C-alpha cells in the first residue's frame, strides 16, 4: 500500500505497482529504482493529489481489488463512528499518564544514547574542547 496525505495512492502487490503507475501516466525512468520513484511521486503535493484522484477513478472503473480494499463509508461524525468509540474506550482502559509517557521516552532516549558510543565520544570531545576554549578566554582576564 502506498499512501500520501493520509489517502491511498496505490494498493496491491508490488509486482503490479509498476504496471499500475505506467497505466496512469507515471512511467518509472530507467535510472530510477521503483521505490525511489514512488517516494518522489508521493512526496510532491501536486502529484500526490493526482495520484489520489486516479486511484479513486481506477477503483470506480472496476480496477483490481484486493480483500483489503473494500469500500467503507465514513461516519458523518465522530460520535456516530464505531471505530472512534472503540478507540476512545481502548485509550481509557490502557492509556497512560503524561508522567509515565515522559519516563518511558526518557528511558528510551538514554538507552539509545548509551548504545551509540560514537555519540558519547563526540559529545565528550565537544564539551572538552569548549571547556578549554572558555577556560583560556577567562584565564587571560583573571
TrEMBL record:
GO annotation, cellular component aspect: membrane
Keywords attached to this entry: Membrane, Transmembrane, Transmembrane helix, Transport
Membrane-spanning segments: 118-138
Localization per record: Membrane
Pfam families (alphabetical): ABC2_membrane_7 (PF19055)
Membrane association type: Multi-pass membrane protein
GO MF annotation terms: ABC-type transporter activity
ABC transporter family G domain segment(s): 2-49
UniProt main location, coarse: membrane
Protein name per Swiss-Prot or TrEMBL: ABC transporter family G domain-containing protein
Amino acid at each position: 500500500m502506498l499512501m500520501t496525505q493520509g489517502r491511498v495512492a496505490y494498493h496491491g502487490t508490488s509486482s503490479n505497482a509498476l504496471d499500475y503507475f505506467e497505466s496512469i501516466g507515471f512511467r518509472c525512468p530507467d535510472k530510477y529504482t521503483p521505490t525511489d520513484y514512488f517516494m518522489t511521486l508521493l512526496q510532491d503535493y501536486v502529484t500526490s493529489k493526482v495520484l489520489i484522484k486516479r486511484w479513486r477513478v481506477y477503483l470506480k472503473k472496476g480496477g483490481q481489488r484486493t480483500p483489503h480494499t473494500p469500500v467503507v463509508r465514513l461516519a458523518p461524525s465522530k460520535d456516530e463512528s464505531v471505530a472512534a468509540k472503540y478507540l476512545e474506550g481502548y485509550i481509557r482502559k490502557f492509556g497512560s499518564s503524561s508522567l509515565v509517557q515522559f519516563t518511558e521516552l526518557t528511558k528510551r532516549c538514554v538507552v539509545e544514547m548509551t548504545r551509540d558510543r560514537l555519540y558519547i565520544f563526540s559529545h565528550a570531545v565537544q564539551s572538552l574542547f569548549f571547556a578549554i576554549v572558555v577556560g583560556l578566554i577567562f584565564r587571560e582576564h583573571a
